[in-house]
Amino acid sequence: MTQTADPRHYDFSDRTRYDALMDVVRTRMTVRAFDPGYVVPREHYEMILEAARHAPSGANAQPWHYVIVTDQELKNRIMEYFREEQVVRAKLKMKFPTPDYGGLATAPGLVVVASDFRWVRAFPVLNDGSALDRMYKKAQQAMKPLLGTPDQLSVLDIMCFGPPAKQPYRRWKKNLDEITNWNRFDASHFMTDAQIDEWVTTTRHKAMYRDAGNVD
Fold first, then answer.
1. DSSP letter at 170?
2. What is the rounded CA–CA span in Å between residue 199 and residue 57?
3. Nearest 5 degrees, angle CA 181-CA 187-CA 188?
4. In Å, what is the CA distance from 82 to each residue of 31, 74, 96, 98, 123?
5. How far apart, in whole angstroms, are the C-alpha atoms of residue 159 and residue 59?
6. Can you give the pLDDT at residue 167?
7. Which of 27, 92, 110, 173 could join 69 in a cystine, given CB atoms 3.0 to 4.6 angstroms apart?
8. pLDDT tens per residue across span 166-207
9. What separation, in Å, do the N-terminal and C-terminal C-alpha atoms of the chain show?
10. Rounded distance, CA 81 to CA 4, Å?
11. 47 with 37: CB under 8 angstroms?
12. Within a 13 Å sphere around the CA of 203, how many CA atoms are in the beta-carbon half?
């Protein structure tokens, strides 16, 4: 889709950007052994995480952190953990087709994704038995028959598609250096319970509904 000044006037017949994306998607491969002599440039990790940080999240809380592991000793220890798990599976005769995790240590780098589940405080429904909580569960039950959804499944989200009726705004995103950590989690990135509660009170509404330039 070719972007013009007004997003309402996208040329939806132009597949150029879609085809470029699908070329990446279709050629993605799972690899379990790597060239240990190759050094991935630091900027390549940052390019990957730059794309990741623009993903949507509930209440725009962005509850993620990424630890990039390039230290060989750390990679070895992570690999050994998975190999120990593999041995336990074999002893339990789980007959699980576990791959050889030895290749993990040969990867030039690993990206460990961590999420802070305390950010559920940013949502209005917390299984607290409140009237709002009961309404949420009632909506779940009403939605399932409409869609023929089995009781064992939960409706998690609804995504809307179509051109915007008015000029959309760019939502606020955390800076890359706030969510990127090298080999160990940067303690300065950690937020206390009080800081999260303050964010919910003072910033949540701005992060959800204001242009990025209007979020303090």
1. P
2. 15
3. 90
4. 16, 13, 14, 10, 35
5. 15
6. 81
7. 110
8. 787 888 899 999 999 999 999 999 999 999 999 999 998 888
9. 32
10. 50
11. no
12. 18
Give me 94's structure tokens: 């789980």
Q: Which of left, alpha, beta for 80 (phi over 0: left; psi -120 to 50: alpha)?
A: alpha
What does the block give as tokens for 75? 């990679």
- The SS3 of residue 100 is coil
Residue where the block lists tokens 């132009």: 14
**Cα distance between residue 104 and residue 78, in whole Å:** 8
Q: How far from 149 is each of 68, 127, 172, CA to CA, in Å?
A: 39, 21, 34
Sign of CA dihedral 157, 161, 165, 169: positive
Question: How far is Cα of residue 117 from the mean position of the Cα atoms in its chain?
Answer: 13
Q: pLDDT tens-digit profile of 2-16?
A: 444 555 566 778 899
Please indicate, yes or no, whether the overall pTM of this predicted structure exceeds 0.85. Answer: no
Sequence-ordered list of residues with C-beta below 8 angstroms from that of 49, at least 6 positions apart, any chain: 66, 111, 176, 179, 180
Q: Which of 48, 115, 110 has the alpha carbon at shortest distance from 73?
A: 110
Secondary structure letter of residue 182 according to DSSP: E
Q: What are phi and psi of 67, to 5 degrees?
A: -110, 115
Spatial separation of the C-alpha atoms in residues 196 and 207, rounded to whole Å = 13
Find where tokens 């779940």 sit: 140
